[in-house]
Amino acid sequence: MRTLVGIGYDSHRFADGRRLILGGVEIPHERGLDGHSDADVLTHAVIDALLGAAGLGDIGEHFPDTDERWRDADSVELLETVVAIVADAGLEMVNVDCTVVMEAPRLGPHKQAIRARLAGALGLSQARVNVKATTGEQMGFVGRGEGVAALATASLDHAG
Ligand code: MG
Q: How far is CA 141 from the centre of its chain?
């Protein structure tokens, strides 16, 4: 038995007239994130971490952004699909850790709701799902408020 580890990274740009959804939770803000789906950058990073740990490619292979089926898709539903794919591969999740890199709004008041939503979608206890937030210290595209980045790791074990 060997524990498997995967990483995920994503970024999306801010746009007017869009909702800001992070980890399946809508965050009140004057702008949201642009993308083919709901642009939930955090959930996309978590999906890629799970697929990476399972050795099953990346989110673009499973849910191409050229496919109309995934237009405005609820990314938590995509995550639930990937959770099922991971289980079908004979693997079980150990933990997920993630970081949102965003200048504004502050994520602090929303971290617990995001943790609960992701844990529910993953079928993990909240103790196994950690959500962190940091800023870009006014540097780069995040620091200029142009968009949001997210990173995630996931570890899997062979289902007993
Ligand atoms: Mg994405």
A: 19
